[in-house]
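Handout, page 2. Input:
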Amino acid sequence: MTSPATELAPAAIAERSLPPWVEGFREDYRALFVERWSPYVGALVLVAISLGLMMSGQFWGVFGGLKLWGDWLNNLVGLVDLLGIGDHLENPLMHRISLMNITLILGAASAAMLSGDFQIAWSRRLDYAWGALGGTFMGVGASLAGGCTIGGFFTPALFFAASAWVNVVGLTIGAIVGLKVLMWTLGTIKWGTTPPPPAGGRWIKAHGVGVGSALALAILVWAVTWMLAEDDKLSGRGLVVLAGFALGFVLHRSRFCLARAIREPFMTGDGTMTKATLLSLVLGLPLASLLLQHEMVDPLLANPARFWLGSLLGGSLFGFGMVFASGCGSGSLWRAGEGQVKLWVAILFFAWSGSLFNAMVKPFELLTAEMTLDLVEATKVGYQAFLPAMLGGWPATYAAVAGLMSAWYAFVRYNESTERFTVV
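Output:
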């Protein structure tokens, strides 16, 4: 009778007999595509992509594309006339933020396949309910705040928008309340807690390297083809395809998530993701300020007219929702790309509620922007507040932002050591 060790011996011998240079390639592949990246590495690459988009006159966003998906959904179910949305909607593949979202999902899917992480992960029925609830709050919150954790905080922070820092306060308040409510439900609600069915997607997981590589190659061909097009809009969209795919790939590899940056210090006391986010800002803000000071970028391009009420209220609602959804805007997209079904439910309701809320408040002109005498946009929930203009120049702005980030870091680091502010 042959022992298991004897059966495995030929394979082990074959692996040991591989030339050293082949084993070197395998080690590099594992380091790049299989082993998890540090969130600090992810933060560095993400801010580099964001700055690259800024230099091209564009920016990273999420909610605008999701709202368009919601508009298309309302068009599909016949609600466009009732809601006053209109039936002449932009092609999701031509809308800049929508295209970035689509390719972000594809980037995360490719990374998950190459690493062997891709699988259709089902959830409990209660988790789907939480995904729907969380997505709904996120859609309303992002509408009021002018974006999710990306469009409401991260990108506006790089554009030195005052609303970004008010948004962080709102996100924190919402996350704390959400965690307390979620913990209460764990001991109260028994419906829908049956374990989910086994994960699917085994064929893709078994052939992940080939499928993931083919997907990456297809995206590269797509991006280059559009970038070389004579049409300026199409050429610009080619860069979006490439940037979106890179964002999704990096987000998955590093597991970078702004929802965790806000939530984890209060949930587990872990401040790693918060510190990675702060690192990205420490490196990105000085470079972004140079682009703004030399007028290479419009400072109001990604500055939502939400300071301060919309940022605070919208951030609070969004922070509450992202706890139940288990992800923010970008986090939901890349986790959906790796096969998390709950996050697809969250995205569906995020998009739909964002479309519905915007349509319902349109008659009241709550979010309708008008140009003020100071040449900034204003709505009934806030205006575009550019920190250097508010504080009288860049020196005061640098000092204020440095103070805010230092206080955030000190709080998170203190809580890591003491867990004084954890609420779970």
